[in-house]
Amino acid sequence: MYHVVGSVATSQTFRLAQMVERCMSVMQSGTQMMKLKSGTKGLVRLFYLDEHRTCIRWRPSRKSEKAKIIIDSIYKVTEGRQSEIFHRHAEGNFDPSCCFTIYHGNHMECLDLITSNPEEARTWITGLKYLMAGISDEDSLAKRQRTHDQYPF
């Protein structure tokens, strides 16, 4: 009888790869989410990952060129109702497990999103964290670190 070393690790790696690919597929297909903005009740938009997996886009939007976030510009993704806008919308009975915030850009802008169920939120959070970790360009990593140093949260 032979013992295969690393088969458990290989199996876990395979399952992780399957999960990540499922996240990417769901994200590229698009998900209806509510985009919270200060002073408004929120806007329902279709959010999706572009075919190159380099940016998140949404529609409809009157400013289609601005309706995107480049993955390299994302500093962090937080789960739950942690951002300032979520706190301002205290009257909204949003399930925290359906809420997440994307911090991005040179001035640490926030995109606050609410999904219709916790599974959708987990899919997007997992997928975004995977895409952020996959940056191989050292300049992008250095830029992200400088942004973090400038705007620590």
UniProtKB/TrEMBL annotation:
Matching SMART domains: PH (SM00233)
Which Pfam families does the protein's record reference? Answer: PH_12 (PF16457)
Alphabetized Gene3D superfamilies for the sequence: Pleckstrin-homology domain (PH domain)/Phosphotyrosine-binding domain (PTB) (2.30.29.30)
GO biological process per UniProt: phosphatidylinositol metabolic process; phosphatidylinositol-mediated signaling; release of sequestered calcium ion into cytosol
Q: Which InterPro entries match?
A: PH-like_dom_sf, PH_domain, PI-PLC_fam
Q: Where is the PH domain?
A: 26-135
May I have one GO cellular component term? cytoplasm
One MF term in the entry's GO annotations: phosphatidylinositol-4,5-bisphosphate phospholipase C activity
SUPFAM superfamilies in the record, alphabetically?
A: PH domain-like (SSF50729)
The record's section on PANTHER family has: 1-PHOSPHATIDYLINOSITOL 4,5-BISPHOSPHATE PHOSPHODIESTERASE ETA-1, PHOSPHOINOSITIDE-SPECIFIC PHOSPHOLIPASE C FAMILY PROTEIN
Q: What is the recorded name of this protein?
A: PH domain-containing protein
